[in-house]
Please model this.
Amino acid sequence: METIQLKDPNTPPSDEVLKEVLGTSFDAFDELMKTVRNAPYDLVAGWNYYIDGKAWLCKVQFKKKTVFWLSVWDQFFKTAFYFTEKTKPGVLELDIDNATKREFDQRELTGKLIPLVINVTEKEQLNDLLTIAEYKKRLR
Model:
């Protein structure tokens, strides 16, 4: 069973902690963070401990817009993007993995939003993730 990690409010997610929990997936995490912080993405990633979820989560933003959320699991990390019914067709037109599109297309609304979740274990998955992030960043 998958279990979210980084549950201790007194242990912030340092590189050492992340390397231990992510294992071989740390390289993909590290590359993602280095990439999104620079042009053309210019995103800001900030870790916070959320009492309601009892875990550390990383909110990745462009200006005041949340582009995606990142959570750390045992040997991988999850990214969660949220879209509306209005922006859903744009996601389905992106040049990303068809399985990701199918899964997203079948997702039910959570409130007014549709989640697109990607479990990342390797660097090869970052192209799709960055394509989705660029789309989300451009939305009004």
